[in-house]
Amino acid sequence: MTRVETLLPPLKPESLQCIHRFVAYSPAETRRRYPRRRSAAVAIILFVGRLGDLYVLLSTRAGNMRTYAQDTALPGGKYEEGDMDTEGTARREAYEEIGLPMDHDKVRKLCLLDSFLTGNSLVVTPVVLLITDHTLSPLLNPTEVTTLFSMPLSSFLQSRPSLIPSFHYSILHRLPSNYPPSTLTHPPAVGYAEDEGEVGGKEGRFYGFRDILWGEGKVRMHRFLTGREGEGVKPVYGLTAAILIHAASIGYDQKPSFQLSAPGQRTMNQRIEYAIRHPNGSAALRRAVEAEGLWDDWNEGKAKL
């Protein structure tokens, strides 16, 4: 039994195996570095529920955010000077957004996952963290986050819920004493908005997807309901959904019960390489690679685009 296990409530066997797989996981080997000015990190924060299942924390972004206002998201953001590494970025952002302690014993790092490319040309690396201290009481930053809730990690492999989720974090989160009362009211219920460039999709009571035209081809955008849509919480969609599907697939060593990619969709590594190296890719990423002197990384062992 590892020291991490001794700090946790009773775990289901599949939850224990999931933690072990994360600890043993390493992203696909690459010698290529991403430019820091176009890098970001998100925190996949796990905790053990009452019945021994693993849950992941999700938040609703504040309505005044410049991008993705009121979206359901994982804590995270761009690299800032002073961040030691990707883990440092994820921990700082989680601390700033929901008050997650920086203490590495109370919140253990399990692994880094493979990087993802966003629509605004950021390379995002997920960091998997595990809460081992259930006395923690998150403190939300109202300028960034309005709601904190949880979903079973395993639900992101299913087209229908495999267990009844306790959609609230088991520890009540605190709000600052000066939290504006107006922000405690629920915003209007939001629908599943149409996507520009949509080329196909499927709706379901829990899971759905849409294939959209993005850059060089089609990309599948997955959607999971949270059970809180009546309170104005948006579904888990797009990049956040893709990251959680990837995390659950690694942790539980299972493929999702739905088709992961659109016909002909490139892998994420191929999309990142295309964005950096192809003239029709991302000018912002190419400029950042050049400014940070990283072209040698990307010109070595060129793949066919």
Automatic annotation (TrEMBL):
InterPro entries the UniProt entry points to: CoAse, NUDIX_hydrolase-like_dom_sf, NUDIX_hydrolase_dom
The protein's name: Nudix hydrolase domain-containing protein
Tree of life domain: Eukaryota
Matching Pfam families: NUDIX (PF00293)
CDD domains: NUDIX_CoAse_Nudt7 (cd03426)
Domain Nudix hydrolase positions: 37-177
GO molecular function, one term: coenzyme A diphosphatase activity
GO biological process, alphabetically ordered: coenzyme A catabolic process
